[in-house]
Write a structure and sequence with these properties.
The structure is a single chain. The chain is mainly α and about 220 residues long. The chain has one domain. It has eight helices and no strands. The longest helix is centred in the middle third of the chain and has 33 residues.
């Protein structure tokens, strides 16, 4: 699947190199986002290089791999939003906007996890670093309130839209809806996160694969 944009003077897809380049790059990034997040989650599942003490829920390789995946998530929501918009334009716009906002908190969390690793490496007590996570400043809390709800609303709107319009396989819509409670469950500590965290990103990857497969030969989605 690739995404092209019609030129203003014609309904035909533009041949502008910029659009052709990004029309091919964006779908690749769209699947790279959840795929890398899943790989990172598996590091947590297998407890690879976990930090000590109160930060024993942070995996060093997961933080790096997830950071790479997080910066690709905007492309994921651009593609999902575009596909939804083929039969539900307003829902597609909502999915794209919500997804972009939600991706911001994923990037922020990934960056802060990486910073936590650096602080511990420099001798800062893991308890102190964890306290920063648990007790954010007012502005940090406000930033979370702006970006966290869209993180969950985007897959809900997309999943419902896909199930209603059948613009992608039903299992893609179901996977998007399943991502939300599974990811919330992944915030639990202990063994639960080792199962639900990779399961959540696995569902997102399945959803994106379904969206791309359904529209790879659809001229309207190119």
């Amino acid at each position: 699947m690739s995404i092209t944009v019609a030129s203003p003077a014609s309904a035909e897809p533009t041949t502008d190199p910029w659009y052709r380049f990004f029309g091919r790059l964006v779908p690749t990034l769209a699947i790279a986002g959840p795929a890398l997040a899943l790989v990172g989650a598996l590091f947590v599942a297998f407890q690879v290089q976990m930090l000590p003490g109160d930060l024993d829920w942070i995996s060093e390789p997961e933080s790096f791999v997830f950071y790479l995946g997080a910066i690709a998530l905007p492309a994921t929501w651009i593609v999902i939003g575009r596909v939804v918009a083929l039969r539900a334009s307003r829902a597609g716009i909502a999915v794209t906007v919500l997804g972009m906002l939600g991706a911001a908190i994923a990037v922020s969390a990934a960056a802060w996890r990486q910073m936590s690793i650096d602080l511990v490496d420099q001798g800062v007590n893991p308890f102190v670093v964890n306290e920063v996570w648990d007790n954010p400043t007012l502005f940090s809390a406000l930033a979370t309130l702006v970006t966290l709800p869209p993180f969950f609303l985007a897959p809900i709107v997309a999943g419902v839209a896909i199930l209603r319009t059948r613009t992608a396989p039903m299992w893609s819509g179901i996977a998007l809806l399943g991502f939300v409670p599974t990811f919330i469950a992944a915030q639990a500590v202990g063994v639960a996160i080792r199962v639900t965290y990779p399961a959540a990103w696995g569902l997102m990857l399945v959803a994106v694969v379904g969206v791309l497969r359904a529209h790879r030969n659809d001229p309207a989605a190119r």
